Description:
Number of strands: 4
Helix content: 25-40%
Number of helices: 7
Shape: globular
Structural class: alpha/beta
Low-confidence stretches: none
Strand order of the largest sheet: 2-1-3-4
Order of helices and strands: HHHHEHEHEHE
Bound molecules: iron/sulfur cluster
CATH topology of the largest domain: Rossmann fold
CATH superfamily of the largest domain: Response regulator
Amino acid sequence: MMDNAPYACAFCATTACLRGEFDKMPTTCPTRTRPETTRDPGVYAAEPVHGEMLAADAAPFTSEGELRNRVEEVIFYATAQGFRRIGIAFCVSLTKESQKLGRLLREAGLETELVCCRVGAIDYDEIGLKKAHPERFAAICNPVAQARLLNARGVDLVVQLGLCIGHDLILQRECEAPVTTLVVKDRVLDHHTIAALR
Ligand code: SF4
């Protein structure tokens, strides 16, 4: 029975894992109930995951001890991992911001390829989606084409900005390179989704 209990992270009031306080962990804490999975440092010994963990660990702070913002972290991580060409898959509503990211990446010595979500200019009618105004052209988001264009350029990493829920998942599935999210689409909260959780 215990084995099927929900992982206690769902209601944990101690987050004792953070401090290694084993006696304060809930009885259904997966640190206690699934040690063969959760307490296996050996999974981080081999490459590439060891190098990925080193780069992630070094990302938050500069060598002078200053915190990096997330854009700076992406640049640091990409450089530390030896990535050369960065793909940017962006929502048309964030075109200027995405182009600025491209400039910042290039100033850091990286190559970039940018692809807008409406690439291809495929009308809603062409894939059987309903339109608010049927008499007008309306371009679908085209995450499959975004991914394929970036795959064709052999990018080492894809950064996505502002893609809709669902389109982001298609992009991630279709991309050959790893995908990181810099901005999530949140039309109500100006992409500041954490505000809905506080
Ligand atoms: S791992 Fe255990 S201690 Fe940490 S949040 Fe989950 S239930 Fe709480």
